[in-house]
Amino acid sequence: KSGFVAIVGRPNVGKSTLMNHVIGQKIAIMSDKPQTTRNKIHGVYTQESSQIVFLDTPGIHKRTSKLGDYMNQVALNTLNEVEAVLFLVDVAAGFGGGDRFVIEQLKQVKTPVILVMNKIDQVRPDEVPAMIQQYNAMHEFAAIVPISALQGNNVDRLLQVLHGYL
Ligand code: GDP
Ligand code: MG
């Protein structure tokens, strides 16, 4: 099994941290260099039976200009071409306008979107069900997976869910 997975989410939600955990420090740091190419490859996750190519999609999280509009369209095209989209949110920061903008964009995409509730180590466990309900009401996500990218909690579960879409 193999496939492409795009990662979206506003700055600081933990995209790089997740990639560091999944793929290893070196590659994620390399891919943080500014690039002008369409898609940055975050890294490639390889196992005996599977390979996942993680793509960054710059331009999806804000629109500031005509160039921004163009970038957005490029990003949307990418999202329609991958097997699954990981939409990361920061549950410690709470839901914000930046997240709402991304969800609006994702409504135009037919690819399955997996909501990743990151920084779960920062909230009380009993707060999580209500948060999941709140996100479910906003969009029809293919799956919702709470994780801590920093501590690595539940990241194996996320990879398992991803494999179902390859
Ligand atoms: P990006 O901009 O989406 O790539 O976000 P980064 O991966 O650079 O993370 C932004 C900040 O959030 C960093 O200080 C990370 O250490 C922190 N962070 C990322 N994931 C977690 C997490 O699961 N828990 C906590 N407590 N902090 C996290
Ligand atoms: Mg980053």
Compile the SSE list and pairings.
Layout: E1 2-8, H1 15-23, H2 25-30, E2 40-46, E3 51-56, H3 66-81, E4 84-90, H4 97-106, E5 113-118, H5 128-138, E6 143-146, H6 155-163
Parallel strand pairs: 1-3, 1-4, 4-5, 5-6
Antiparallel strand pairs: 2-3
The structure holds guanosine-5'-diphosphate and magnesium ion.
Guanosine-5'-diphosphate binds next to helix 1.
Structure description:
Keywords: Cell membrane, Cytoplasm, GTP-binding, Membrane, Nucleotide-binding, Ribosome biogenesis, RNA-binding, rRNA-binding. Belongs to the TRAFAC class TrmE-Era-EngA-EngB-Septin-like GTPase superfamily. Era GTPase family. Residues 9-16 are annotated as: G1. Residues 1-166 form the Era-type G domain. This protein has helices at residues 15-23, 25-30, 66-81, 97-106, 128-138, 155-163, and strands at residues 2-8, 40-46, 51-56, 84-90, 113-118, 143-146. It is of the alpha/beta class. It has a 6-stranded mixed sheet with strand order 2-3-1-4-5-6, sandwiched between helices. A hairpin with a 4-residue loop joins strand 2 (40-46) and strand 3. The longest helix has 16 residues, at 66-81. 34% of the residues are buried. It binds guanosine-5'-diphosphate and magnesium ion. Magnesium ion is lined by residues 15-16, 32.
Task: Write out key terms for the chains shown.
six-stranded mixed sheet; 37% helix; Rossmann fold; binds magnesium ion; 166 residues; binds guanosine-5'-diphosphate
